[in-house]
Amino acid sequence: MSADSKRIGLLAVGILVSGLFVALGNWQLARANEKSAALDRFNTRAQSPTMNLDKFNIQDIASVVGRSAFTKGGYREGTTVLLDNQSLGGRIGYLVYTAYRIAKTDLHILVNRGWIAALPDPRRLPDLGPEPIDSAVSGRLSDPPSVGIRLQGAEIAEPMGDGVWRVQRIDFPVLAKLFDVEIIGATLLLDNAMPNGFIRNWTPPGEDQARHLAYAFQWFAMALAVFVISVGLFVRSQRRTQT
């Protein structure tokens, strides 16, 4: 391979890498826009009256995410899920979800009961206390935390104890199959006044849009740096061959 071919090849690689970084930056901008729209919807729907879940068409649940809601039914035994890698105050822990039957229907909703700290040994369960008692629940309908890029196997539920599983993301169809119940496509952020909960320091979904904007800036800056360096090296090598 000639020297010219090598220089052109290195320049092409630099341009491709720069293009990849631009694409990643655009993806982060799209994520920020999605988060901004979700936050606007969540805050707007907070002004709507509290709704009774057992008198609502569950097929339209996505249209009311953000509204306050309540229902009477009962927690389903042995259906607790720990969502891993959830931080609070610089500490790593879990969000604790338990399936709750909506009134006298066969439908269930995952109740987000709050945050609990993880133990230093990840193989051990934190103290979750007894199974939650049957009681009315109230809170705000919410989508589960997003996970960005979904890695293969992230939906797998890892058994952690009797009726407790650890997951990397909330996948409603997977959990419905695991528990053998019908689960609607939204969660309920349990009100602070409700029993059977843990630390409930709720943040609206989409509030972390600034993080995606920061990531986008970093990708664009890296793209520019790679492009400038690649072109600079190519021009310098060209000049050397001409002298």
List keywords for this structure.
243 residues, alpha/beta, 2 domains, nine-stranded mixed β-sheet, 3 helices
Q: Report, as a whole number of angstroms, the end-to-end distance.
A: 21 Å
Helix content: 25-40%
- The overall pLDDT average reads 86
Mind summarizing the main beta sheet? 9 strands, mixed
Q: How would you characterize this protein structure?
A:
This protein has 243 residues and is α/β, with parallel strands linked by helices. The chain has two domains: 3-35 and 209-242; 47-190, no CATH class. It is built from three helices and nine strands; from the N terminus they run αββββββββαβα. The protein has helices at residues 3-45, 172-179, 209-242; strands spanning 51-52, 68-71, 73-88, 91-102, 107-117, 137-142, 158-161, 164-167, 182-190. A nine-stranded mixed beta sheet has the order 1-2-6-9-5-4-3-8-7. Helix 1 packs antiparallel against helix 3 (209-242). The protein is elongated and about 85 Å long.
Helix-strand blueprint:
Blueprint: H1 3-45, E1 51-52, E2 68-71, E3 73-88, E4 91-102, E5 107-117, E6 137-142, E7 158-161, E8 164-167, H2 172-179, E9 182-190, H3 209-242
Parallel strand pairs: 1-2, 3-8, 5-9
Antiparallel strand pairs: 2-6, 3-4, 4-5, 6-9, 7-8
Helix pairs in contact: 1-3
Q: Briefly, what is this?
A:
This protein is of the alpha/beta class.
